[in-house]
Amino acid sequence: MAANLKSVIVGTAGHIDHGKSALVEALTGTHPDRLEEEKRRGITIDLGFAFLEENGVRFGFVDVPGHERFVKNMLAGTSGIDLVLLVIAADEALKPQTREHFDICRLLGVPRGVVALTKCDLVDRDTLDLVRLETEEFVKGSFLERAPVLAVSAKTGEGLPALKQALHQAAQQTSEKQSSRYFRLPVDRSFPVKGFGTVVTGTLISGQVASGDEVELLPEPKLLRVRGLQSGGISLDRAEAGQRTAVNLAGIEHTAIQRGMVIASPGRFAKTRRIDARLHLLKSAPRLKHRAQVHFHAGTAETVAEVLLYGKTELAPRENALVQLRLADEVVVIRGDRFIVRQFSPVVTIGGGEALDPLARRPTRKDTTRVQFLETLERGSREQILLAMVERNILGLGTQEIVPRLGWLESEVQPVAQNLAKAGAIHIVNVDPLLLISEKLFQEISKKLLARVESFHKDNPLLPGIQREDLRTAVGKRVRTETFRTALDELAKQSKLVLQDELVKKPGTEITLTPEEARAKTAIEQAFAKAGLAVPSVKEVLAQLSIESRRAERILQILLREKSLIRVSPELIFHQTALARLPALLHNYKKSKGERIGVPAFKELTGVTRKYAIPLLEYLDRQRVTRRTGDERVIL
Ligand SMILES: Nc1nc2c(ncn2[C@@H]2O[C@H](COP(=O)(O)OP(=O)(O)O)[C@@H](O)[C@H]2O)c(=O)[nH]1
Ligand SMILES: [Mg+2]
Fold this sequence. Notes:
Elements: E1 6-13, H1 20-28, H2 36-41, E2 48-54, E3 57-63, H3 71-78, E4 83-89, H4 96-107, E5 112-118, H5 125-139, E6 149-151, H6 160-173, E7 184-193, E8 197-203, E9 208-210, E10 214-218, E11 222-231, E12 234-236, E13 238-240, E14 244-250, E15 262-264, E16 271-281, E17 288-289, E18 292-298, E19 301-309, E20 314-315, E21 320-332, E22 338-343, E23 349-357, H7 370-379, H8 382-391, E24 397-398, H9 399-406, H10 410-422, E25 426-430, E26 435-438, H11 439-459, E27 466-467, H12 468-475, H13 481-493, E28 498-500, E29 503-505, H14 515-531, H15 538-543, H16 549-561, E30 565-569, E31 572-575, H17 576-580, H18 582-593, E32 596-598, H19 599-606, H20 610-622, E33 626-629, E34 632-635
Parallel strand pairs: 1-3, 1-4, 4-5, 5-6
Antiparallel strand pairs: 2-3, 7-8, 7-15, 8-14, 9-13, 10-11, 10-15, 11-12, 11-14, 16-21, 16-23, 17-20, 18-19, 18-22, 19-21, 22-23, 24-26, 25-26, 27-29, 28-29, 30-31, 32-34, 33-34
This protein binds guanosine-5'-diphosphate and magnesium ion.
């Protein structure tokens, strides 16, 4: 297949028996009905496919059933089409499914199309003119207002060249496909192929896929490998947006994949059961009540939804509203995806719309900014959209919250974030993985940290600074660790804080002792110095001071930090001068009595009791003055 071919997908639409399938056959040479039952009954039940390659365009036809009972199959086929071929039989004119299919095309945002007045061999000229007038009136004001309306006959071949020409013209206008986006293919069929295994088909609505790629099946989720690709029976190495695509998948039974599932770039899409959207009600629809149940269709998926109306109790025909759709099953939807809703019973199409926040939160009374947020998602620029998302997310926003909602490439998020950061609206806490928070919030957190450090110094003049972990709890769980760390680093860079291992302090804060505290400090130090190795218990020393125990404890900490005193075991503290004498003592012992020394000999040498000897020897082991071997020590 030539690489420069333009791929265009044409979907049929129209009432049953109006000649859709016959027309597709007349255009392509392939009759799209493929099921036994379809051939026997002569009606289309499910989607059919056919291809036509002509003048640099490769048309993929999706032929849909016209019967009202199979509108849900029609819906699965119509999502993702570039052009609609609206088929109206000249001998019957407009019929219920002509209207319903047309409404569906409008609601799904099908951009353009061609109208075929079929079976023109069955009517006279006056009837044809009348049907043409009626048709033009019918499409007035819609996307088909200026579309060609062509009389054709699948039987005699009349008008077919003109119809092909019109399809070519419309194909030229179809916009560049979303080939650069992340790969997504809503599955419409899954079946086994002898010798190959599972094959799924669908309209490739965005991105590209190549043989050998790893893809994700959603909403399962499951990772699968692409074994091979085809489009219209032709094998391809790569398929891209705008192609009908058959994907041969390794490692899965065909029964494990159903219509409505999606295969996609791994990790780029998310499943959801809660979508905030704009819903339009058709003029033919009855009033829709808050919390009404409807059938929901998006992509090839179909489920039941409850409609929560924001700020309304009822929606009248022709009206639209912001709504939340609570789905019975998980689907894969991104912002901008169109959907259709059908009345719960009897089942008729009543409206549709566009997803705005596909990963919506549960509605609460407290959430007063939702409507404004959704309006920004609906109409805002990229910067406005990203900013609104960042501002609604006090924990900070990462790629995982952005990409599956908006369908942007990661590389598209970065420049938008940079622009917002430059404008001072957001703070980029981390680049990879991306973490964004609003600048206002970041400043609040920084301020909180500064205030906490300040108040700590005020309350604890005898401590050099606050422990990082204590500071972390001061800003609460609603601040991610990365944000906390970045805020601290930036405050340090601005010389507003000093970071010293696990301590955080204000620059220039010195510990200042009152005269009373200074006296206590000297008293403690002297008590230990005088005692030598026969040290008193810490409690005893502190109890003799004239200051209260909490302050005395802090002063003890200062002495330990200054290394005037050394903690040998949890209960034992010695003055450093007493400990400093030990290596020399042991050295002399080694010279006269050899390198080995037991606990009794150590007691004798130092004059300490067993209670002190053991912790002291363990301390000396740690200091690598001695090494334990059995009950003895080797002097090193
Ligand atoms: N005379 C005539 N009959 C047609 C024409 N197109 C389709 N038919 C017949 O109309 C019936 C329904 O056609 P089909 O393509 O199955 O309609 P669909 O339900 O819209 O797909 C079949 O019996 C066709 O042979 C046409 O252009 N002229
Ligand atoms: Mg048919």
